[in-house]
Specification:
Layout: E1 2-3, E2 7-9, E3 17-19, H1 23-29, H2 34-49, H3 55-63, H4 79-85, H5 89-97, H6 112-116, H7 126-133, H8 148-154, H9 158-166, H10 181-185, H11 193-201, H12 216-223, H13 226-234, H14 249-255, H15 260-268, H16 283-289, H17 293-304, H18 310-321, H19 324-335, H20 341-350
Antiparallel strand pairs: 1-2, 2-3
Length: 351
């Protein structure tokens, strides 16, 4: 920024020069009036609020008539929104002290609080907390219904999720595709397990489904997250849930060639090995088509020994750890209707 007696120029926006000294006379000399001067002041305030300008520049612009709540451009952003997105707490404080509308929303229903949440990835929540203290609505959502809690959950920011929940954010909110914060978290294949625990502890519905019928369990099974699968099952996730296409968590775990331990967990919690999707596929047929021999063992074993006995778990465990050659032998054993759990002990000794 360059200052002179009669003007200052934003070096970031060299085409924008705002006359400060004798502004009425300066604009009159160029054949323009008060309206043109005000427009320039408003544009300058918006530019300054998202730049590295000293906050005193903002005070000066407001003194000479800049509209603090002016929303310009195709998105309808205000100076408060821009300053919030940049994490400029000095600008945010100054604008609010001078009457900036904390409830103003852009054309997509984003408020200054929504823009402050853009700093989730920087783990910087100073502006966000300041806006909350000044009366911002933590339950605000954009035009699609997407909330800050959903964004923080999907970004896997434990600090932000914890802060939002402590400040009363709703875990039950849904956006236009019926995603909840928990479902948004499970969209991220690398989401921290702590996010899920926090959301569930605050009452998130473990069996909530989106507009396609996808549940959190289906998504984490697809991602291969054994830790998430285990946690969701312990919190009552329904293994029999189906999406719009008839798919189940077990089917998706097999199709995506995920850790066989996911299959074991789902089967132990009662997954139906005979369930068919919309195309008539079963877990066994999908495992065969995908070359998932260990999954075939799991599925076949569930069919042959439906009772959860100690022998069942012993044999199932050996099925999961056996070498590929032994895995094929597992399948052959299943095909023999006379095979018994005792046969698995022989297999284990030879594996």
């Amino acid at each position: 920024m360059i200052l002179s007696k009669t003007s200052f120029v934003f070096t970031e926006y060299p085409c924008l020069t705002v006359i400060i000294v004798d502004p009425f006379d300066s604009f009159s000399e160029h054949g323009t009036g008060v309206a043109a001067r005000d427009e320039e002041m408003n544009r300058a305030l918006l530019c300054a609020s998202e730049s590295e300008c000293d906050v005193k520049i903002g005070v000066l612009l407001l003194k000479y008539g800049a509209d603090i709540n002016n929303a310009e451009g195709e998105y309808g952003h205000t100076a408060l929104m821009k300053a919030s997105s940049k994490g400029r707490i000095d600008w945010v404080a100054m604008l609010l002290e001078n009457g900036a509308d904390i409830t103003a929303a852009d054309f997509y229903e984003n408020t200054a609080l929504s823009f402050a949440a853009a700093n989730i990835h920087k783990n910087d929540m100073k502006v966000f907390l300041f806006l909350l203290k000044c009366g911002a609505n933590i339950h605000t959502a954009d035009i699609t219904g997407y909330t800050t809690l959903m964004g923080a959950s999907q970004a896997s920011s434990v600090r932000w999720v914890e802060m939002l929940l402590k400040n009363g954010a709703y875990v039950t909110d849904r956006e236009e595709e019926f995603n909840t914060a928990l479902l948004c978290a499970t969209n991220n294949s690398n989401c921290d397990l702590k996010i899920g625990r926090l959301l569930l502890d605050y009452g998130s519905d473990v069996n909530a489904a989106d507009h396609l019928g996808d549940t959190a369990l289906m998504r984490v099974s697809t991602h291969g997250r054994v830790d998430w699968v285990k946690m969701l099952l312990k919190h009552g996730a329904e293994v029999a849930a189906r999406d719009r296409y008839g798919g189940t968590a077990l089917l998706y775990a097999i199709i995506k060639k995920r850790d066989v331990n996911i299959g074991r967990l789902l089967l132990q919690y009662g997954a139906d090995v005979n369930a068919t999707d919309g195309e008539g596929r079963t877990a066994l047929s999908v495992a065969s088509a995908c070359g998932r021999y260990q999954f075939q063992c799991c599925v076949n074993f569930q069919r042959k020994f439906p009772l959860k006995t100690c022998v069942y778990y012993f044999a199932l465990n050996q099925c999961l750890i056996c070498r590929p050659v032994s895995t094929l032998l597992c399948i052959n054993l299943f095909e023999n209707s006379q095979s018994t759990p005792g046969d698995w002990q022989l297999l284990y000794s030879s594996a």
